[in-house]
Amino acid sequence: MEPNRREFIKQCAFQKFCNTVLHNEACDAHKELHRHKAKEITFSDLTLEEARQLHTFDEYFKGETAFERAGKKITPKLLLEAIRTLPEEKRKAVLLYYFEGMNDTEIAELFNTSRSTIQYRRTSSFELLKKYLEENADEWDECYRILKPTGAFYCWGSSQMIDKLSVSLKVSRLYAKS
Fold first, then answer.
1. Regarding predicted confidence, which is higher, 31 or 154?
2. Around Cβ 90, how many Cβ atoms within 10 Å?
């Protein structure tokens, strides 16, 4: 039982064709890698001028809008600082729900906890945010109005710096009255 010679020739021709196709594809891929490598340059090889063109500046709060509630001016920076003061679990729940558009069930699956826990974290954070905003809204507003024209400190520092600033504002008001 000898295989049919014609079938054997067909198999050999097909194998040769497949090997040729694979060889050509490997050569093309190798040439493509060399073309990319010739065009690529590492960051360490860039000149200072070229490296400076590769960055961008975030311009958050450029056209800052504030709203007023209960006689207090709430700015985006103040709200951001208030969110930063939340405990980590509550902060994540608030950010994912309100800024990422996830619902409580999705967040619960992400953190492997119950939906009611996420809802509690999110809703209980309102009291903390409200307390922070009530305590700091006036200080931030005054600080922002006084220091913005100078281009100096925008009240974006530590709470100690804000406390020092509020004390100095109160002292300056006393001197202004007398």
1. 31
2. 21
CA separation for the pair 154, 147 (Å, rounded): 6
For the record, the structure tokens of 90 come out as 């509550």
Q: Could you tell me the maximum CA-CA distance found in the chain, to the nearest angstrom?
A: 121
Q: What is the C-alpha end-to-end distance of the chain, expressed in Å?
A: 121
The structure tokens 């021709």 sit at 13
Tokens coding 145? 């109005």
Model pTM score: 0.43
Asked if pLDDT for residue 168 goes beyond 50, the answer is no
> 22-48 burial by CB neighbour count: b if 16+ within 10 A, else e?
eeeeeeeeeeeeeeeeeeeeeeeeeee
How many CA atoms within 13 Å lie on the side-chain side of 4?
A: 4
The span from the CA of 135 to the CA of 146, in Å, is 19
Report the SS3 class of residue 135.
helix
Kindly report the backbone phi and psi dihedral angles of residue 116, in degrees, each rounded to the nearest multiple of 5, phi listed first: -65, -30
Q: Where are the beta strands (DSSP E) in 10-87?
A: 67-69, 72-74
* DSSP code at position 120: H
Q: What is the tens place of the pLDDT at every residue in 95-134?
A: 898 888 889 999 999 999 999 999 999 889 988 888 888 8
